């Protein structure tokens, strides 16, 4: 039986790839910034695999994502900042500290009593601990300061709104958000009529922000919802394309009404 590679082998492999004399030229010249696009791509590939329930390939995609973490840590080690073991230590220490209901004595081996605890109380406790950590690090206490600016727009909007809602700045139910969406749509329509591109962009952003706000009230992940719609559109448009290709007519010969009829047929087949 072939020996299974382990954590130490992965560290060794990464060090070899980055070795100044005998490593891979491409890996050697990479920086934190240059591999960020690859990291983002690997995250989305993991998400895509899970959403398609393609668990056969999930192991491979998780490996690709793990490699990104190891890569960053090796660059940091090369620069004498920290190494992978430090990353793991910090992670374990933080999670032990943030789970006092599991590790009551603040150690990895401590055991809790068999008391009942629900997810809602754990979530509140998690937020309180994170706030305490911020204060102990002398970080700015402004409510929105630590939301990463590099997040995708809709995801960051969702986090901003959720954070504001925790201190009471929110509508009591989704009806208030829906009214705001209608208001923003009216303002967008006015901007479109004015043909002012900057105003259109601003108002369209307000509409998207309000729609993202609605997802918090409805407990829907906006990125997941859009990805599902993308897949739905791709299937239906593919059906239209198949029908056009089976005919003797070019796309330009079809009216929008005819293509819409194919679209409606696709909906019945999906």
Main pleated sheet: none
Following the backbone from N to C, one meets helices and strands in this order, namely: HHHHHHHHHHH
Total domain count: 3
> Number of DSSP helices?
11
Counted beta strands: 0
What is the multimeric organization of the chains shown? single chain
Radius of gyration: 25 Å
CATH topology of the largest domain: Helix Hairpins
- CATH class category name of the largest domain: Mainly Alpha
Distance between the termini: 46 Å
Query: CATH superfamily of the largest domain, called what?
Result: MazG-like
The overall pLDDT, averaged over residues, is: 90
Helical amount among residues, as a percent range? 55-70%
Task: Catalogue the unreliable spans.
Answer: none
Query: How much of the sequence is in beta strands?
Result: under 5%
Global outline: extended
| Class computed from helices, strands and strand pairing | mainly alpha
Do you know the CATH architecture of the largest domain? Orthogonal Bundle
């Amino acid at each position: 039986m072939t020996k299974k590679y382990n954590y130490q082998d992965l560290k060794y492999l990464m060090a070899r790839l980055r070795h100044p004399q005998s490593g891979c030229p491409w890996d050697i010249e990479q920086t934190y910034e240059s591999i960020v696009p690859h990291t983002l791509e690997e995250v989305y590939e993991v998400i895509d695999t899970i959403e398609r329930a393609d668990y056969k390939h999930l192991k491979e995609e998780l490996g690709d994502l793990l490699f990104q973490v190891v890569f960053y840590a090796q660059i940091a080690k090369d620069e004498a900042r920290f190494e992978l073991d430090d990353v793991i230590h910090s992670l374990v220490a933080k999670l032990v500290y943030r789970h006092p209901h599991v590790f009551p004595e603040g150690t990895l081996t401590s055991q809790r009593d068999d008391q009942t605890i629900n997810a809602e109380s754990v979530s509140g406790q998690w937020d309180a601990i994170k706030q305490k950590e911020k204060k102990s690090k002398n970080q700015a206490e402004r409510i929105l300061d630590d939301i990463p600016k590099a997040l995708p727009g809709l995801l960051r909007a969702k986090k901003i709104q959720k954070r504001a809602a925790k201190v009471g700045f929110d509508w009591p139910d989704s009806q208030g958000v829906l009214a705001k969406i209608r208001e923003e749509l009216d303002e967008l329509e006015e901007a479109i009529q004015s043909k002012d591109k900057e105003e259109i962009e601003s108002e369209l952003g307000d509409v998207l922000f309000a729609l993202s706000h609605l997802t918090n009230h409805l407990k829907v992940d906006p990125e997941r919802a859009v990805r599902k719609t993308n897949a739905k559109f791709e299937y239906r448009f593919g059906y239209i394309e198949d029908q056009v290709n089976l005919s003797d007519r070019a796309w330009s010969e079809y009216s929008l009404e005819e293509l819409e009829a194919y679209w409606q047929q696709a909906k019945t087949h999906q």
